[in-house]
Design a protein that fits this description.
Layout: H1 17-28, H2 33-48, H3 52-59, H4 65-82, H5 88-107, H6 112-126, H7 136-146, H8 161-164, H9 170-191, H10 197-205, H11 208-221, H12 227-249, H13 256-260, H14 263-268, H15 276-289, H16 296-307, H17 309-319, H18 325-340, H19 342-347, H20 352-363, H21 378-398, H22 407-424, H23 430-433, H24 438-462, H25 464-479, H26 483-495, H27 507-514, H28 518-523, H29 531-543, H30 545-550, H31 555-565, H32 569-585, H33 587-590, H34 594-605, H35 613-628, H36 633-659, H37 663-683, H38 711-727, H39 732-743, H40 758-766, H41 775-786, H42 795-817, H43 823-835, H44 841-846, H45 851-860, H46 866-879, H47 887-915, H48 921-934, H49 938-947, H50 958-971, H51 976-989
Helix pairs in contact: 1-2, 3-4, 4-6, 5-6, 6-9, 7-9, 9-10, 9-11, 9-12, 11-12, 12-15, 15-18, 16-18, 16-20, 17-18, 18-21, 21-22, 21-24, 22-24, 25-26, 25-27, 26-29, 29-32, 31-32, 32-35, 34-35, 34-36, 35-36, 35-37, 36-37, 36-38, 37-39, 39-41, 40-41, 40-42, 41-43, 42-43, 43-46, 45-47, 46-48, ...
GO molecular function: small GTPase binding
Subcellular location: Nucleus
Family: Belongs to the importin beta family.
Length: 996
């Protein structure tokens, strides 16, 4: 039974030229969307037909512009697709036809779009490999002048191109300009990545002198008489500079001097209103991308143009907030000049003209409006000043001991730039900000980030003085209650925080600032201070925490401000972070105030709106850090009991939410309780900068938290942990937080509140199933615990390792029995076993049914997922090595290797022999290297695998296999094995896989 095709689906098949013309007119007519696809297919079919050449010629005879355009397009398509069907005689005839049509279309006043399309066809003809039409520009000029096609061979006897161009009509001149533009553009597209680039550049360059002749006349004489020709000439000049740039980059032979002589003519267009746009685009683009094209005289002339009265008028409009096209074009030309002449602008301080240019570049930072919102040019101007600053820094370093004499003047410019930026980064009033969309807010934020980078860079040039000026400015704006100016000033000081970190001399500057009314004013809730100002003040505290560690006299006012800030939702997060960093850094100075901290936190908890988990865990961690600095465990007990009491309240809330079936609140509260515990545990760890007591090994370890007065408190924590984990092991946040609580005690060598018995971790791990969320993280936590001891593990740790292995075997069996292979669980299970080698290798050997692990890990080497495959490879890499063990354990390992070694080698050989992906080869190289180094039987096992009938490749024979094996054995696990693996894999897969 055939398919019935509706009339609307049937292909259109034109029978005559009239049918084709009708379809073309229908295709370009508006409102033909339903039919356009079928019409396009029909027209494309006739274009591609052998009769397409004749069709193109016939269509150009039409009086309809759309039909004539399609005729020119058809010539273009036929040249691109069917060139090889032409012999030399046909190609010569085609060229004559195309040029004759170009003459006729120009003489008949055909539309620009038709003539340009025919020019594109001529360019495509020129780019054909035969290369018979070499002097295409001169030939076109002569033909257009004569009104008929002349033989190419007769050109040597004709007058120079420069003598003929003045006789051309404006239309003919335009056609040649369009052709020249298309030629420059298309050569770049077609051959920018060609291996024969130089060949084509040299070929096109033979036309350069003729192009210059055309442009020289058309730009000299037609500026006022025929603006259209002049504008097209400028654009053509632009395109040929682009072509010259590509040739210059590729080091092709090109006489730039010919094109350079046209630059003064193009500059004339900058004085003409109707030519200004095209000229500005030309000079801006060339300055940005090919400044080497311009001569020193060109730069001097441009600097004059950029500072004349017209330029001053445009700049005035720009500063008043006029960002129309002409104004923005001028600004971008000025910036392009700045980037190209940055060296002269910095060094030639006695050049008044360049000084004026530099001042105008500075003025671009002072336009009305907010950066990126109303003021569009300010962010672009910042890029120039960053470049200028980087040039100064490079010059400073390269000058070594003796600074350049112009550096002092350049520094003054940087100071002026920073002052202008200080004004531009100031936030508007809140009533303005609320009217902005997200793009406007992002624009100002991005600009402030650029200013921050500039200020950081400027410190190399300006030193501590710039920091002192901003600090003084901060005090001034504080006294005048200019809050948004104060915010901008504090922002600038924050930008310099890393730069002055090692400068002791800034301490007195900061003391003056922090000893002022800054924190008192910021704490005043009744003052109408913008939230942004308070937020930046909080951020400043986090940037200068080491200062407060040295000057604790400022801590009370600062911390009062931070705790007050916690009540404001917009400030709570950054304030909590500041409190955390401050308490961690200054813990020893705050131990006497721990009671006040606990009272402040209790007061905060009484606020109904205080329910941010992040803030709670940060504050509890901060208080715990202070408690850690209390010398005696007995002194820590009471404040820690109060802290744990806060957690117990959170725990009780979660239980209440559970009873009330408020699932979301239940999960949030449970997670909050665990994260607070984790934050406390981390904060109670002994700081890294604590001096090591060389005699501590002789001091009996305290059992205060395990068996003494603190034991009850530790039991409370463990009970909450087990209960929440037991109820919500399906919740990833709860599992992660539970693991973090456990991990917080692993790094501690001494007894502590969060140094739990090993059984706590063992119980949580053993309670997990394949349905437990974040099981991979839980198993990794078990590995972290096992590896916490640097010495030989004790019996408790060995028992824990055995328990973990038994559980891993249970997880493997569960996945196998239920046909529920999970790549992440599989990888994590094997990784835990691998982490036990070599410290707990004896446990692995002695665990019952350990063969399940060996079998499973071998299967994972063939798994499609990279995670279990990598884990299994690393497991076997560790297992096959030689280890110092008791004789009984050594014998057990030898038995295991005798049983599983041949199969391991068989899998490795198959993978390396072509089954593995290229990206996996380094993974499989690891166990191979360890095998050949540590196992005497490895060569025999590998040889047997290579000779096996199921070897995946037929592209390598016995000789190649034998040679590869001998090479691997000789390398004995050295790094060169990886390359040998890759080479063998390529040989097995085929040379087409030998990419870089």
């Amino acid at each position: 039974m055939g398919l019935n095709m509706s009339p609307s689906d049937a292909p259109i098949e034109p029978k005559s030229l009239e049918d084709v013309e009708r379809l073309i007119q229908q295709f370009y007519a508006p409102g033909q969307s339903q039919e356009s696809g079928r019409i396009h297919s029909a027209l494309q079919k006739v274009q591609r037909s052998p009769e397409g050449w004749q069709l193109a010629d016939a269509l150009l005879r039409s009086q309809n512009d759309n039909v004539r355009f399609f005729g020119a397009l058809t010539f273009l398509i036929k040249i691109n697709h069917d060139w090889d069907s032409l012999n030399d005689q046909d190609a010569a005839l085609l060229l004559n036809t195309l040029i004759q049509w170009l003459i006729q279309l120009c003489n008949s006043g055909a539309p620009k779009v038709v003539i340009k399309k025919l020019c594109a066809a001529l360019v495509s003809y020129y780019l054909r490999p035969s290369g018979v039409w070499k002097q295409c520009i001169r030939h076109l000029v002569l033909c257009m002048n004569d009104g008929e096609v002349i033989p190419v061979t007769s050109m040597d006897h004709r007058p120079p191109t420069s003598s003929v161009v003045p006789s051309l009509s404006p239309t003919s001149t335009l056609a040649i300009l369009w052709f020249a533009r298309s030629l420059a553009e298309e050569v770049g597209k077609a051959y920018s990545s060609s291996l024969q680039t130089h060949k084509y550049y040299n070929r096109v360059s033979t036309n350069l002198e003729d192009v210059v002749a055309v442009l020289d006349y058309s730009m000299k004489t037609t500026g006022g008489a025929n603006p259209r020709v002049f504008e097209e000439s400028v654009s053509c000049f632009h395109d040929w500079i682009g072509y010259a740039h590509r040739a210059w980059v590729d080091k092709a032979v090109l006489e730039l001097g010919l094109l350079r002589q046209l630059t003064p003519l193009a500059m004339i267009a900058l004085y003409q209103d109707d030519m200004y746009g095209a000229a500005v685009e030309l000079f801006t683009d060339v300055l940005n991308n090919f400044p080497a094209f311009f001569t020193k005289d060109d730069f001097m002339t441009l600097s004059t143009l950029l500072t004349n009265s017209k330029a001053q008028d445009i700049l005035s409009r720009l500063k008043e907030g006029d960002f129309d096209v002409e104004v923005m074009s001028f600004a971008r030309l000025l910036l392009a000049y700045g980037d190209a002449a940055v060296q002269d602008l910095a060094q030639k301080t006695d050049d008044a003209q360049l000084g004026q240019v530099l001042q105008q570049l500075l003025d671009l930072l002072s336009c009305d409006g907010y950066p990126g919102v109303e003021d569009e040019i300010c962010p672009e101007a910042m890029e120039f000043w960053i470049t200028y600053t980087e040039f100064l820094i490079d010059s400073l370093f390269s000058a070594e001991d003796q600074q350049p004499i112009w550096m002092h003047s350049a520094r003054r410019h940087i100071e002026a730039v920073i002052e202008a930026c200080w004004v531009k980064i100031q936030y508007p009033p809140e009533e303005v900000v609320v009217t902005w969309d997200s793009d406007a807010k992002t624009s100002l934020k991005t600009f402030r980030g650029d200013v921050e980078d500039l200020i950081q860079s400027s410190y190399t040039l300006l030193g501590v003085d710039i920091f002192g000026k901003f600090a003084q400015l901060a005090i001034q704006t504080l006294q005048s209650h200019a809050w948004l100016q104060l915010e901008a000033t504090l922002f600038c000081l924050n930008a310099l925080s890393d730069s002055v970190a090692d400068e002791d001399m800034v301490d007195h500057i900061l003391s003056n600032l922090f000893g002022s009314s800054l924190f008192i004013d910021m704490t005043n809730a009744t003052a109408s201070i913008p939230a942004k100002t308070r937020q930046t003040a909080v951020t400043m505290i986090t940037r200068f925490t080491t200062f407060f560690e040295r000057h604790v006299e400022h801590l009370p006012a600062m911390l009062t401000f931070l705790f007050e800030s916690l009540k404001a939702p917009a400030l709570a997060t950054v304030a909590a972070r500041a409190i955390s960093s401050t308490c961690s850094t200054c813990r020893k100075s705050l131990t006497s105030e721990v009671g006040a901290f606990l009272q402040q936190y209790a007061l905060l908890l009484s606020w109904n709106s205080f329910n941010d988990t992040y803030v709670k865990e940060k504050i509890m961690g901060a208080i715990a850090a202070i408690i850690q600095a209390i010398p005696a465990d007995e002194g820590k007990l009471a404040p820690l009991s109060m802290l744990i009491g806060f957690v117990e309240q959170e725990f009780a809330n979660s239980m209440k939410y559970k009873e009330e079936s408020q699932a979301e609140n239940y999960q949030e509260s449970a997670t909050c309780a665990l994260r607070c515990l984790a934050s406390m545990g981390k904060a109670l760890q002994k700081p890294d900068d604590v001096a090591i007591d060389l005699e501590e090994g002789n001091v009996p370890q305290s059992r205060f938290w395990r068996e003494g007065e603190g034991a009850a408190l530790q039991k409370k924590i463990i009970q909450m942990l087990k209960e929440l984990y037991g109820q919500m092991s399906w919740n990833s946040d709860v599992v992660e937080a539970s693991c973090q609580v456990l991990r917080s005690g692993y790094t501690e060598k001494d007894d502590g509140l969060f140094v739990f018995p090993l059984s706590v971790t063992v119980d949580l791990v053993m309670a997990s199933t394949t349905d437990t969320s974040r099981l991979d993280y839980l198993l990794d936590t078990a590995a972290v615990m096992l590896n916490r001891q640097s010495a030989d593990p004790d019996s408790g740790m060995r028992h824990a390792a055995s328990s973990f292995l038994i559980h891993v075997l249970d997880l493997i069996e569960s996945m196998t029995m239920n046909n529920a292979f999970d790549p992440e669980i599989a990888a994590s299970s094997i990784e835990l076993a691998q982490q036990m080698i070599p410290r707990y290798l004896h446990c692995i050997i002695r665990v019952p049914n350990i063969e399940k692990l060996f079998e499973f890990s071998l299967d994972c080497l063939n798994a499609p997922d990279i995670l279990p495959k990598r884990a299994a490879a690393y497991f076997w890499s560790a297992f096959v090595q030689k280890h110092e063990l008791p004789a009984e354990d050594t014998m057990s390992i030898e038995v295991a290797m005798k049983q599983y070694g041949p199969r391991l080698c068989h899998i490795l050989v198959r993978q390396i022999g072509g089954e593995a992906a290229r990206s996996e080869l380094d993974v499989f190289a690891e166990p191979l290297k360890r095998l050949v180094f540590a196992q005497l039987q490895a060569k025999q096992w590998l040889a047997s695998a290579l000779d096996n009938d199921d070897f995946p490749s037929k592209k390598v024979g016995p000789t190649e296999k034998r040679m590869w094996l001998q090479k691997v054995i000789n390398l004995r696990g050295a790094k060169g094995t990886n390359q040998a693996v890759k080479d063998f894999w390529i040989a097995c897969r085929g040379a087409e896989f030998a990419y870089a």
